[in-house]
Write a structure and sequence with these properties.
The structure is a single chain. This protein is mainly alpha-helical. The protein has a domain at 25-91. It has 7 helices and 2 strands. The chain has helices spanning 25-49, 51-56, 61-77, 80-91, 98-112, 118-123, 145-152, and strands spanning 130-131, 138-139. The protein has a two-stranded antiparallel ribbon with strand order 1-2. Strand 1 and strand 2 form a beta hairpin. Helix 3 runs antiparallel to helix 4. The mean pLDDT is 78.
């Protein structure tokens, strides 16, 4: 059964017009392009949004965490001032006061004879060394005297 074109229709139809009952290829192609464009623009937006976090990643942990929180606040509240503040904070190199102060505190604790911090001992895998009161040489607490005598013999 051949389908006739309506008499009011033009004789030369464009190629994107499909016959009744056929699949509309143009609509499928445009749908795929639209989905790809939305995903691409969303990816670009999220990469731009995480720019301050990626810049602060190489800095100190506290600075990175503050920048990450400012980025999340900007994402969920749509207040762009948080993003700008995070970007400015990520661009500034804050001086590292923590490391020298921890070193000074550790040295003062060693001079005073106060035992080392428990957190530092649990983070290291090596056994803690004890210092005797009369010498500055470390004594191994894990070995007994019999095994030391056998190793010297």
């Amino acid at each position: 059964m051949s389908e006739l074109v309506h008499p009011a229709a033009p004789h030369h139809l464009p190629s994107f017009i499909t016959a009744p009952g056929d699949t509309d290829i143009l609509m499928i192609v445009v749908g795929i392009i639209l989905i790809a464009a939305v995903l691409a623009v969303g990816n670009i937006y999220l990469r731009l949004h995480t720019l301050p976090e990626r810049m602060a990643h190489r800095s100190q942990k506290l600075q990175f965490e503050i920048v990450a929180v400012l980025g999340l606040l900007a994402l969920f509240t749509h207040i762009h001032l948080f993003w700008v503040a995070g970007l400015l904070l990520a661009m500034i190199d804050l001086p590292d006061f923590g490391t020298p102060l921890r070193s000074i505190a550790g040295s003062v604790a060693k001079i005073a004879g106060v035992p080392a911090n428990i957190d530092q001992e649990t983070q290291t895998s090596e056994p803690a060394q004890k210092f005797s009161a009369d010498t500055d040489k470390p004594q191994d607490s894990g070995k007994d005297d019999a095994s030391e005598e056998q190793s010297h013999a």
